[in-house]
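[step 3/7] fold_predict: job queued, chain A
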Amino acid sequence: MQQSGGGILGYRPEVDGLRAVAVVAVILFHAHLGVAPGGYVGVDIFFVISGYLISSIIMRESEQGNFSFLRFYERRIRRIFPALFVVLTATAIASWFILPPEALQTFTQSLVATVGFVSNLFFWLKSGYFGGDADLFPLNHMWSLSVEEQFYIVFPFVVIIGYATRRWLLHAIILGTFVASLALCIYYTRHHQMAAFFLTPLRAWELLAGVIIAMNESRWRPALEQRRWLPILMELAGLAAILIAIATYSDATPFPGWTAAVPVLGSALLIVAARPTSPVGRILASRPVVFIGLLSYSAYLWHQPLFALARASGLAEHGRPMFAALIAITFLLAALTWKFVEQPFRQKGRFSQLQIFGGFFVLSGALVAFGAAGHLSKGFPGRYDADTLALNATTAYSPERDRCHTDGVGYLKPEVSCRYLGGTTRWAVFSDSHGPEIAYALAEELRPRGQGVLHLTFSGCQPALQFPASGPGCSAWIQDSMAYLKRSPEITDVVVVFRYSFHLFGDEAPVYPRLPNDRPKFLPERSPDEARRAYVESFVEMVRQLTAAGKRVYVVKPIPNLPGHVERYIFDAQRDAPGFQTGVTMDYYRARNAYILPVFDRLDALPGVTVLDPVPSLCNAERCASLIDGKAMYFDANHLSVAGARHVFDDQIARGVLRLDP
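[step 4/7] structure written:
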């Protein structure tokens, strides 16, 4: 990122100060310290700043008639890629020693996508940005750089065409594109949120907000200077908008859409109104804040690899002190990178244009070659011995998951849902993503009896019989599935399991060993306690209606989660040490599920209901296991593997809790 010069005002230290706000917000968000739940809006701030500064340069040079595409992209390479190449190389080396094969393969794929300016597409297709394995991806944050570079491949051509024809046409194109991009962003946030989050056409309006400021600054500035209090009110409103978004947004906020307009408008107001002598501008332009702003690009590059690799290695389980140390290391590395990498490469006298472009293509080729090798080799498994790789093979998920697991508004209707592995189907598994492996293991147990299983699972779905679910299609799927089960006399036994505490309090993986306490994503208009009570009552009513329809219902208690991905236990050299093959403590399990566990006592009292408790199958009195009898019980941090589901069913049958015969 360049020093914040641009527009009619020259260098603007207060804009560098705004960078500091943005990068600190993003870093605190990714650290999951609970102090900046909406810190991801820092990227939106960066987009507005970038649009303002880069377009100022392009339009100034176009007006002077000396704009050069070659010089423009040379500047982009000088400012973006030296630090980026250093971080990518260092992350690749560290990942070689830390990440197991599957995770390293994903990393090398993301490495190629980053160098090719398409990491936003990669992470859109791979996982998203919030929750799941996203925090374990060292390059997950590079999506924003891809959005910017894709934008700047197109934008200079638009400006050149505009200046070559009529100036009003350029303004019309920019404004029309801004409106169209914002409208599409709002629509897709409602229907395909991750597309709205990652795709450049749906984010372009944020960069164009900065462009519009740059295009009109010469007209707005004199008018503002004649009004003493208006600029002050504008900058105070802008700062308030940004801070409110950082403090009150969360991963449950529908984003980007309309909600992104708050930090975007706040950033725009600050860029328009703040000055080094104004109340807010004076703070932003202060030397300590500006210094952080100057380090913001390198700090942004470094923080996520450090956080992700700490999580992958287990260091993050030391909690807040570890993340405080990682944040300090982030800014130390950022300062070194800024001084010894960013600054020298920005000096044209140090490196010629030929050296810049030549180095760019050589280093890009080397990183792409390493990434391609990692992909083709499936993560360089030769780093490990045969026994470790055999153990890793037991992390397999259900072979029917891809075919039978559903989600979204175009979900698989229950009438055509999968039935396997036997002939007669009288059992069904009704679940969110925790169900496919349970369904497959149950089908294996039933196959010798000539019976099969009806597979009804929907990704991330709450038991939303009596309230609108947070995910598209979930509520309708619950209603359809319930109606189908109740009117199907051949289905006599239904296994019900959900990731209860995740829906009620959020994901524990990013904050372990702390307990998450996020507000539920569903029923945002109600208080968290009211939403949780609605969840419980809906869940109980769902079970009650199934039993009233004559079904025998088996409700599964919360499945113990692991502190991290199961691969960490498999590939650690000390995995055979006594006590290492463990997940969470029983104290953590009970605290994590304290809200939902009493509900199973209510359900156990209902006629026709059997409660299945996986804890005796997976845990001893102190801890829960990640590996049992040489097999992985999970395929990630919280979903049972097929081997884990088999183990639970075998144990439940052996204990006499589960009876498969009529």
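[step 5/7] annotate
The longest helix spans residues 69-98.
The chain has a mean pLDDT of 92.
exit 0
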